[in-house]
Amino acid sequence: MRTAVLVALLGLLLSCGGARADNYPSHPITIIVPFAAGGPTDAMARILAERMQNKLGQTILIENVTGAAGSLGVGRVVRAPPDGYTVGIGHLGTHVANGAIYRLGYDLVTDLEPVVLLPSNPMIIVSKNAVPAKTLKELIAWLKARPAPATAGTAGAGSGSHIAGLYFENITGVPLQFVPYRGTAPAMNDLVAGQIDVMIDQTSNSIAQVRAGTIRAYAVTDEKRVASASDIPTTDEAGLSGFHMTLWSGLWVPSGTPKDVVTRLNGAAVDTLNDPAVRMKLENLGLQMTPADRLSPEALGAWQQAEIAKWWPMIRAAHVQVE
Ligand code: ASP
């Protein structure tokens, strides 16, 4: 028993040693992706990690910790040692909406340190090919005429796809039957297979299937068209005026992480985002790059808090139920 305690103490001392920033990073870093592999958050993490690891001189591993709209994966980051070796990626859903929906057991602001605001993704309204509608107006008419609500895939209550779905219900008056998955990658598989009817998805997740003709796109939820998919109309053009939503993402580390470690991670992420090859990959997925003056950790912190102030009252008023 005493030996076990000594071993535990030694482990603690060693892990504290790892928190020293002067030799950081001295071993591999893990990015926790709180959604399924192959989905939009996972894709962004892998594109960034590939380049960030060159900048940091250490391998970056990706671990998908899924469930409860990403809140389990974020919890893993909160509880990790604050040494810069566990980094979390998340978005408007995981780092804002979930705080109004779940009893998280952690505080999204005080238990995490912001690292960098990542590119934003407009949403896209898509359906399985068997839906007869060809335009957004026809889709809304088809949804309204159904005897029972159509099924809409989401990555769980509070995820980006779910918030977008609630917003769609609100603006159209059309009820949807939400079907939660561990990410929009598995939801997409079911949409392509015709198991669910529609999805209001991150453009980056749907774009390849839309291009391949395996699902149908109706509109992107932004004021302007997505440059890499310029044939898809905006919601304003397609007749659903004012339905705008872009899903921003970010990187966080546990609170208490040394400031210079956060600075190193931020620097590596910013260099990566400025890399032309990375930009091209992200833009090709329909992502919009973060403006240069919003790339500091402080900018992400301020933005997250502003988004909490904006969204929590709306989400609470919607009485979102956890499935
Ligand atoms: N970002 C999620 C994912 O990677 C999807 C969502 O938030 O709807 O699957």
Give an overview of the whole structure.
By secondary structure, the protein is α/β, with parallel strands linked by helices. The chain has two domains: 163 residues, 3-Layer(aba) Sandwich (D-Maltodextrin-Binding Protein, domain 2), CATH 3.40.190; 117 residues, Periplasmic binding protein-like II (D-Maltodextrin-Binding Protein, domain 2). 45% of the residues lie in helices and 20% in strands. Strands 1, 2, 3, 4, 7, 8 and 9 form a seven-stranded mixed beta sheet that branches. Strands 5-6 form a two-stranded parallel sheet. Strand 5, helix 6 and strand 6 form a beta-alpha-beta unit. The protein is globular, with a radius of gyration of 20 Å. Aspartic acid binds next to helix 2, helix 6 and helix 7.
Shape: globular
Question: How many structural units, i.e. domains?
Answer: 2
Strand content: 15-25%
Ligand inventory:
aspartic acid
According to CATH, the fold-level topology of the largest domain is D-Maltodextrin-Binding Protein, domain 2
Give the CATH level 1 class of the largest domain: Alpha Beta
Count of DSSP strands = 9
State the CATH superfamily name of the largest domain: Bordetella uptake gene, domain 1
Number of H- or I-type helical stretches: 12
Q: What integer value in Å does the Rg equal?
A: 20 Å
